[in-house]
Amino acid sequence: MEPLTEHRLVSGPVVYGFLRLIRVPRARQNALAASLAEYCRAHELRLSGLFTEREATGAASAAFNGLLDALALPDVYGVVVPAMSHVGPKAVALERGRQIECTGARLLLVRRARLTPSTVPRSGPVHRPHPGTTRVVDATSLS
Question: How far apart are CA 54 and CA 118, in angstroms?
Fold first, then answer.
């Protein structure tokens, strides 16, 4: 009888990490690399390599070109970054995002973009509209 899949060593989709670390302390570098590894472990992804950019350059850098070469390998699922800022400044990130997309790989963010103040749920009074009146319900007055 064959063992269950859960009892076999099964590797998840292959991803590569990318970090943009310009003037970043060694402890921060280690923490970011560990966060990528933990994200991959939690999402059953296989982190096959980590490319690190250490100098502020345009869209083309040795680290990013190496990443693009790795993404051209067969069966690569995507790129994992801590946040969009690791892809580069906005203009560079747009171009790099387009290049990553052209390879067929996915760009996976460990940390999503922050919500703007208008989209953050409020913990204050809840407003419920009724025909002709507006009723304000405050959680502290419900006792």
Answer: 35
